Amino acid sequence: MRGRVTIVTFFIALPCIRCDAPDGYVVDKTTDIGYRIFYQSQTWPVARDECEDDGAKLAVPKTLEEFSFMQKLVRGMHYPSIVDSEYQVVVWLGINNLDDYRIWKNIDGENINETGFHEWATGNGGGYSDAPEEPHCAGLDAVHWLRDFWCHRRQPYLCQINLKNKI
Ligand SMILES: *[C@@H]1O[C@H](CO)[C@@H](O)[C@H](O)[C@H]1NC(C)=O
Fold it and tell me: Signal peptide position in this chain (predicted)?
């Protein structure tokens, strides 16, 4: 009996490469960062809170490789599953210029120009004024680099969990 339990445990445990990746998260094995797209669209601040409630953060690409991994996930999105968004194409990331329209910061308050990856789609990322009619939050789509977009719009969003730094 005891031996059988051991064998069963062994076979269940074997394919579990990243047992600590929560449900629904896809792990980039080169960085040990897990990502999940949420299809229930939310405004940017709500998306940020929802990621936190999930023990995660709105995703922030810090390298081209990280951005490419995220974009691959977005390209594989199941668009018909997106709920409550008028414009399903942009997926929220953890980047905004709400503090100071001249500086795009990630959700840890770092200037993204200084953290590595800050490639904007043509016409995006200018940060022209602090006027509310300007887009002050950022996301990505299947085709371009970073996109700026209006924080109050409801979009699907991408959360990330850094498995390496998890206790
Ligand atoms: C960040 O870099 C972009 C070019 O990618 C530049 O246009 C912008 O002025 C820089 N912003 C800051 C705050 O350094």
Answer: 1-19
Q: Which residues pair with 155 in a beta bridge?
A: 42
From the CA of 114, give the closest atom in ligand 1. 14
Report yes or no on 9 lying in a domain.
no
Let me know if residue 73 belongs to a domain: yes
Residue 6 lies in a domain: no
Q: Whose CA is nearest to atom 12 of ligand 1?
A: 103
Tell me how far the alpha carbon of residue 6 lies from the centroid of ligand 1, in angstroms: 57
**Amino acid sitting at position 23:** D
Ligand 1 atom nearest residue 111's Cα: 13
In one-letter notation, the amino acid at residue 7 is I
Residue 106 Cα distances to 9, 36, 72, 85, 167, angstroms: 41, 18, 21, 23, 23
CATH of the domain at 72: 3.10.100.10
Q: Whose CA is nearest to atom 1 of ligand 1?
A: 113
* Whether the predicted pLDDT of 46 surpasses 90: yes
- Domain hosting 73: range is 26-162
Number of independent structural domains in the chain: 1
